[in-house]
Amino acid sequence: MNETAPVQSQGFYAEEMTISVGPQHPSTHGVLRFVVKTDGEVINEAIPDVGYLHRSIEKIGEKVTWHGYVPYTDRADYLAAMFANQVFCMAAEKLAGTEVTRRGEFCRVIACELNRIASHLISVGTFGQDIGAMTPFVHALRERETINNLMEEICGARLTYNYIRIGGVGYDILPETCTRITEFLDHFEPIVDEFNRLLSNNKIFIERLAGVAVISKEDAFSYNLVGPNLRGCGIKWDIRRDIPYSVYPELEFEVPVGTGQVGTLGDSYDRYWVRIRELQESCKILRQCLKMFPKGPAIAKVPRKFKPPVGECYARVEAPRGDMGFYVVSDGSEYPYRVRIRTGSFTAMSIIDKLSKGIMVADLIALIGSLDVDAPEIDR
Amino acid sequence: MQAYIDQLIRDGYFAGMPKEVVYAVAMVLAAFIVLSVFVAPLAGVTSWLERRVWARMQSRVGPNRVGPQGILQWLADGIKNLLKEDLIPSAADAKLFSLAPYVVFVGFLCAFVVIPFGSQLIVADLNIGILYILAVTSLVVVGILMAGWSSNNKWSLLGGMRSAAQIVSYEIPAGLSILTIVFLAGTMSMQGIIKAQGWAPWDWFLFNNPFTFAAFFLYFTAALAEGNRTPFDIPEAESELVAGYVTEYSGMRFLFFFFAEWGNLYVIGAVATTLFLGGWQVPPVTSDPILLGVLQFVVFFLKAYLWVFIAMWVRATLPRVRVDQLMALCWKYMVPLSFLCLLGTICWMLVFPKGNQIFSVAMFVLGLLIVAYFFKRVVFQIRHARPELYFKPHI
Fold it and tell me: Pairing relation of β-strands A322-330 and A42-49?
């Protein structure tokens, strides 16, 4: 797979064609660009070109207060804004030694898992569209719309939430909202089965993905893949389980891993299937949280002028696109001294060049979709 | 049609004019009438219906603003595209670029010359009708290749190349499955093939023997691929090639490609109906020629449009195959299978020179059972689709 024999050796002379995939291309999920060198339909090289969506989020962190930076973190990955909120607040709390209230922790987990479902729905829906199936995409977005409505009830925003604050959450989740979330879960769990009947079990869909762009365990480690991409290679690694945070140790959930059920272990279908399984696992977590939801204040008392002591810390959560980490340094002032964001998509992007050698143009699109790279998360 | 003009000439309506000129004028007029009265609204309404059917399958609403239920949407789209700037990229080969849409358009429009609408309603009943259709629809690939090459865009080029490989390959299984029917009917004339069948389903060539039954599905699949329809729409694969060979087109030229695609859907359905589904054959219920003509037209149109609808349904359901899988499907499975169908039909004709009525009825019952099972599955899916959602967006 990996070596493309030079065409000249067969007695032909074929010129290499350079195609620019993106930044405006229907399947690059935002403004990504690949400089693709092809021999007809077969790709010799696909060089990712990042930087089209750079917004200096890390630098902005040094210019705004600790509290004031939370809304900016939304923009690090706008499909999963809740996770960036949470991980920044976790870092700040760890520095200052703030205790989050128990109800606050549950509110965080509920909001995050809802957001994980929404983000995975986008991921599997657009993946279907990359393969050419238009209907699953619209069905997935229809379900996500309900989650957006729920999010609007919880925090007033539909995309960039700014919900999680240092010490807890901005607004408590009301009992009516809890009922609606349960209603949504009752509705959504059968929808996952419908989605599988429509797309996941489709023969053409499986044929397109089985054995395509296989990532070995060694490659997954050496390219630092995280999240569903890593679990798709059969490695059971989930921050929620292995470096527990928040109330996840109290919750029961499985960590789905790829099994190579239709092709090779670590192929595109495994990565897709891990996401579908995670939708179901998130539903399970949400049901447990709603059952265990304690009473009490949603946010701890945090001074308005938040000044953590001098020091540095690194916090990480399991975001939909894998391990998301914030490294923050405090010099004891009102402003962070340094903020560094580590995201899953950036490392996933780096393996595309290696995997794309010898595959076809259509497979490259499937590969990008299966890695679920997200333009804002790559550049920040 | 020709007989009618001959009658007019004999009655002395065109005295003094050469016979050829009369024929030429009559052909142009007939083509004009077919184009303006039938083809243009048909392709337009098909475009609206496709968007509408597609939308309902995706729990959306679809175009519903222009006219009742949005049925005039295609007129609005057409006017909008006519008023748009006719943009030709400076790097493009301007002549080929301008010409390409018309080649595609002519390729599909010529097919309407031999497509019957009733026992009397046909522009020209050529004795090589079905061969003629195969020939003129092949012209489409020339247009697509021209568009892909002349745009001077790499996506267009890839799309054009894919299209050429695809259409040329899929013509073989399509042609071979058509050949089985030509053997059975003993003629290539469209009307002749229809006349060789009867109004009852067991008199259709579809249920004549198991090989024609298989040939029908081979033909329909190959025709979908020739028409660049999902799951074989790789030449314009939106998520891979941006828009394939139409990437650089805009305005009316862009519309011509899609006009041809939607019109071509009807051609696929009409050919399938003619060859396999008994065409315009109706039970002898009336002897009034006008009423009979209307009845025949309605029957033919409904049969043909059923396959247009199924093509829309397939498009809303299936993902797209990859280009190598597409070729493998054609050369490894469909070509050998269609050869088998051809040989099987020949053997069948040797064994049962007059056909086998009992077997045909049994095939018909089997077909009904397959359709019944299919509908059971559809009902199952609909029952599990939880339609209450569509009426309560807030859960």
Answer: unpaired
CATH 1.10.645.10 in chain A is located at: 57-342
A186-A190-A192 Cα angle (round to 5): 115
The CA distance from B57 to the nearest CA of chain A, in Å, is 7
Residue-wise pLDDT for A240-272, tens only, equals: 888 888 888 888 888 888 888 888 888 889 899
Q: Which residue has the tokens 């862009």?
A: B254
Chain B residues touching residue A360 (CB < 8 angstroms): 322-324
Nearest neighbour of B239 by CB, restricted to A27, A139, A198:
A27
Quote the Cα angle for B76-B79-B84, to 5°.
Answer: 125
In a domain, residue B367? The reply is no
Residue A117 scores a pLDDT above 90: yes
CATH classification of A57-342 is 1.10.645.10, yes or no?
A: yes
Asked if residue B326 has pLDDT above 80, the reply is yes
Q: Across the interface, do B237 and A363 touch by the CB < 8 Å criterion?
A: no
What pLDDT shows up at residue A11? 60
Structural contact between residues B365 and B371, judged by C-beta atoms closer than 8 angstroms: no
Q: Residue B29: inside a domain, yes or no?
A: no
| Rounded CA Rg of chain B | 22
Distance from CA of A222 to the nearest CA of B (A): 29
What's the pLDDT score for residue A329? 92
Within an 8 Å CB–CB cutoff, is residue A280 touching chain B?
no
Higher pLDDT, A30 or B172: B172
pTM over 0.90: no
Alpha carbon distance, N-terminus to C-terminus of chain B: 60
What 3-state class would DSSP assign to A210?
Answer: coil
Distance from the B383 Cα atom to the nearest Cα atom in chain A, whole angstroms: 11
Q: How far is CA B63 from each of CA A340, B41, B371, rounded to the nearest angstrom?
A: 47, 17, 31
Sheet holding A311-319, edge to edge: A311-319, A322-330, A336-342
Q: Do A363 and B322 touch (CB under 8 A)?
A: yes
Residue A4, pLDDT score: 47
- What local confidence, expressed as pLDDT, does residue B373 receive? 92
**Cβ <8 Å between B155 and A19:** yes
Q: How many domains does chain B have?
A: 1
- B94 to each of B145, B147, B247, how far by Cα in Å? 15, 10, 15
B333 touches chain A (CB under 8 A): no
